[in-house]
Amino acid sequence: MVLPLSSSDPPHLLKPTRKIISFSRTHSNNSFGRSPSHSCNGLTFVRSKKPLSDLNAWGIGGPCNYFVQVFDQSQLTTAIRYCREYSLRFMIIGKGSNCLFDNMGYDGCVILNWIDFLEKIRSVGYRVGRGYPFNRLGVQSATEGLSGLEFASGIPGTVGGAVALILLR
Predict the structure, then answer these.
(1) What's the longest Cα–Cα distance across the chain?
(2) 85, 31 in Cβ contact below 8 A?
(3) Which of 35, 69, 79, 109 could form a disulfide linkage to 90, CB 3.0–4.6 angstroms apart?
């Protein structure tokens, strides 16, 4: 599932508190001509056979050829530009609660979205990252007396995944 970038996305986001975790194994035939991982503007693109079964709630799926984690909008933009520059197919995923992957894997780059900030906008709502847990947003808004997302408190996944599902209907 690929989420479109919006021109209305703010240029700044809260700084992430998580660190990038690299999953690397040796791989003798990579397109970078050197080590299995490659850095681009602070992002580490790992060229390994990262199992997609590690990235979804179902625990199924073969390997992907490239893997990168993003924690803010600028990293996401960098990752997408990188994939386009090297003509790599890519997909953006969050928690993987609504993803089923083929056991043959994915011949492209999987971008794992950890953009999970939450900002309260006065008393009228929130601005949240695409990777923010949808059920947590439902509970948070109901706790603070905001209505409309009560149903979300039991739904796994991320805000980005929920929006994508609505847009794809």
Answers:
(1) 56
(2) no
(3) 109
At 48, which helix (H) or strand (E)? Answer: strand 43-51
Where along the chain do its domains lie?
Answer: 37-113, 118-167
Closest residue by Cα to residue 157 from 138, 141, 135, 142: 135
Give the Cα separation of 86 and 165 in Å (integer). Answer: 28
Which CATH architecture is the domain 37-113 placed in? 2-Layer Sandwich (3.30)
Separation CA 161–CA 4 (nearest Å): 12
3-state secondary structure labels for all residues of 59-112: CCCCEEEEEEEECCHHHHHHHHHHHHHCCCCEEEECCCCCCCCCCCCEEEEEEE
pLDDT in tens, 34-72: 335 777 778 888 887 789 999 998 899 999 999 999 999
How confident is the model at residue 49, as a pLDDT? Answer: 74
